[in-house]
């Protein structure tokens, strides 16, 4: 078993390897241990927090890792091969579902919804080298690799779900993606989408916050990454709630569901043929009552010879199906690139 992660989980730089002392699996937030360590929470837990019956994966809903000593990880060189074998939704199927969501919006069922896709690969070689290449192509603050022997998780997340220090809690929801800075800054569609999700996060935090303490501190900020630009906002609050109660009030993250959250999750379950599993869940460290959790976007889940990478887009009333599909593909570029296909053992690029 192995855990490697970005130091920004703990206020450091670079990548760090942590000794794995023990790993425990749980199926419910009711069983969540009140201990320090690294947690991975599956989107499957949405059934529990939202009171719904949603499709689920075969993997444990909660992974809890007890960790020991920490040492800097300098990367690894090795060969691997990825062979694209298919996706849960084709280009045409994805765009058709965008139109269905727009009809739901027109009918007032939802106002915004996050539609995702799963890209499947056969895998051979060093998964550590794949993670190292993924990180080097697009360093992100919440990257990590967790190998549980029967399955592994590779994440290049850049989204802060929740960070709590003493009684202060912060969330930085991401909505708005582009390869061009100016177009993102001038996009009224992306700003409207971002505002909806920010308002949802205000409401979620308001359920466990001290009265009057919920505030939007940043709005429509843009962060540059190697392959794209992302728009985020920041919501802050004060709370005395415990870890479990905070999760019950806020999970799943607003940015990966839609508005209103419960209805969006119901519609998502009818439109996506795949269970999300750990993708769109969250992961991070807890120490005492303080913690840092990222949203599990830009994430792949695999076993010994298969790996699936997930990506999605937020759909609103004026979404263009073709542009939403292009956004999904843009979000895959850091995971597999033309350069990697010729230098690191990749097979040819998938033809989406």
TrEMBL record:
Domain Chorismate-utilising enzyme C-terminal stretches: 91-331
InterPro entries linked to this entry: ADC_synthase, Anth_synth_I-like, Chorismate_C
GO molecular function: 4-amino-4-deoxychorismate synthase activity
UniProt GO BP: L-tryptophan biosynthetic process
PANTHER family: AMINOBENZOATE/ANTHRANILATE SYNTHASE (PTHR11236), AMINODEOXYCHORISMATE SYNTHASE COMPONENT 1 (PTHR11236:SF50)
Name of this chain's protein: Para-aminobenzoate synthetase component 1
Phylogenetic placement of the source organism: Bacteria, Pseudomonadati, Aquificota, Aquificia, Aquificales
């Amino acid at each position: 078993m192995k855990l490697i992660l970005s130091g920004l989980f703990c206020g450091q730089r670079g990548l760090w390897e942590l000794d794995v002392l023990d790993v425990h699996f749980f199926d419910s937030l009711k069983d969540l241990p009140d201990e320090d360590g690294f947690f991975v929470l599956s989107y499957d837990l949405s059934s529990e927090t939202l009171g719904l019956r949603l499709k689920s994966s075969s993997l444990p809903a909660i992974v809890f890792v007890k960790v020991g000593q920490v040492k800097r990880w300098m990367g690894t060189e090795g060969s691997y091969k990825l062979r694209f074998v298919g996706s849960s939704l084709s280009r045409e199927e994805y765009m058709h579902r965008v139109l269905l969501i727009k009809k739901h919006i027109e009918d007032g069922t939802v106002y915004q919804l996050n539609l995702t896709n799963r890209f499947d690969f056969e895998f051979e070689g060093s998964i550590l080298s794949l993670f190292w290449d993924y990180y080097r192509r697009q360093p992100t603050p919440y990257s990590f690799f967790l190998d549980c022997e029967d399955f592994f998780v590779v994440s290049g997340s850049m989204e802060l779900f929740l960070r709590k220090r003493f009684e202060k809690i912060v969330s930085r929801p991401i909505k708005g993606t582009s390869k061009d800075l100016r177009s993102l800054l001038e996009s009224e569609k992306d700003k409207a989408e971002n505002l909806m999700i920010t308002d949802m996060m205000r409401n979620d935090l308001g359920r466990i916050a001290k009265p009057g303490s919920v505030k939007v501190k940043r709005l429509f900020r843009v962060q540059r990454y190697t392959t794209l630009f992302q728009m985020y906002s920041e919501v802050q609050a004060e709370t005395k709630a415990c870890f479990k109660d905070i999760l019950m009030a806020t999970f799943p993250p607003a940015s990966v569901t839609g508005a209103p959250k419960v209805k969006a999750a119901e519609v998502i379950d009818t439109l996506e043929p795949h269970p999300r599993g750990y993708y769109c869940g969250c992961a991070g460290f807890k120490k005492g009552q303080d913690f840092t959790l990222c949203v599990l976007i830009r994430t792949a889940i695999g076993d010994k010879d298969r790996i699936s990478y997930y990506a999605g887009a937020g759909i609103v009333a004026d979404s263009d199906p073709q542009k939403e599909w292009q956004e999904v593909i843009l979000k895959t570029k850091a995971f597999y690139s033309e350069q990697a296909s010729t230098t690191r053992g990749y097979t040819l690029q998938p033809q989406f």
